[in-house]
Design brief:
Triosephosphate isomerase; single chain; TIM Barrel; TrioseP_Isoase_bac/euk; triose-phosphate isomerase activity; alpha/beta; 8-stranded parallel barrel; binds 1,3-dihydroxyacetonephosphate; about 250 residues; about 45% helix
């Protein structure tokens, strides 16, 4: 049985004051009781990981963890501005997003680099959240499965069996920050396609990998999405900034 995982991705938002309010509100809400067997993660901007890590430690809820939004593909050295996976581990991160479409779009990240980043995360005892997804043009021209298959096949080639310890996030680019959520059926179809592709490589890996959906998830559409058999949780952008909305999605 794959646990449901809900991850908030704050992207480039937050401040010391608002982060403290957010973590306190979410912890207080979660202390009232949460559905059993689920995992919750908040991915804060790098400068706030230390602060958020401390706040999360203080509320000591075993099911709430800290995550980062990106990591270097290298372990150490002359890479000005980069952050090594070992540093994220020291900051108490348990999860790291890699290959988000905004990294691919604004920083020209390619699949091989994304897989190298995932390896760094795994080597440091954390869980990579590998993002894939097609653009609007790719879907409109009927190439969505081909595009996502291409992205997944690069991950399989480099990560092999280690994919069993990763999470995959299907985030169609046209649904990110647009309010245009993929219907539960559209999302389920792609999640199924990803799982079948992984099964071509290794059935065990395919049955273990959690596949999260991301793209305009809100409290009012989360229940339907999370009920789908191949959707194992969500990667939440905009709605995760509001602690009450994030709590509502975590309870969906
Ligand atoms: O990119 C996302 C999460 O990583 C999704 O963002 P939104 O939830 O704002 O659409």
């Amino acid at each position: 049985m794959r646990p449901l995982t809900v991850i908030g991705n704050w992207k480039m938002n937050g401040s010391f004051a608002s982060n403290a309010d957010w973590v306190k509100t979410v912890c207080r809400g979660m202390e009232q009781g949460m559905p059993a067997g689920r995992k919750y993660v908040v991915c804060a901007p790098a400068p706030y990981l230390s602060q958020c890590g401390g706040l999360i430690r203080d509320c000591s809820l075993a099911f709430l963890s800290l995550g980062a939004q990106d990591v270097s593909a290298y372990s150490a050295g002359a890479y000005t501005g980069d952050i090594a996976a070992s540093m994220l581990k020291e900051l108490d991160c348990a999860y790291v997003i890699v290959g988000h479409s905004e990294r691919r779009q604004y920083h020209q990240e390619v699949d091989e680099q994304v897989a190298e980043k995932a390896l760094q995360v795994l080597d440091n005892g954390m869980i990579p959240v590998i993002c894939v997804g097609e653009s609007a043009d790719e879907r409109n021209s009927g190439r969505e499965v081909e595009v996502v298959r291409g992205q997944i096949s690069k991950q399989v080639a480099i990560l092999q069996d280690r994919l069993a310890d990763c999470l995959i996030a299907y985030e169609p680019v046209w649904a990110i920050g647009t309010g245009k959520v993929a219907s539960a059926e559209i999302a389920q179809d792609m999640h199924r396609a990803i799982r079948l592709q992984l099964a071509e490589f290794n059935e065990d890996v395919a049955s273990h990998v959690g596949i999260l959906y991301g793209g305009s998830v809100k409290p009012d559409n989360a229940v339907e999405l999370f009920a789908m058999p191949d959707i194992d949780g969500g990667l939440i952008g905009g709605a995760s900034l509001n602690p009450q909305d994030f709590l509502a999605i975590c309870q969906a």
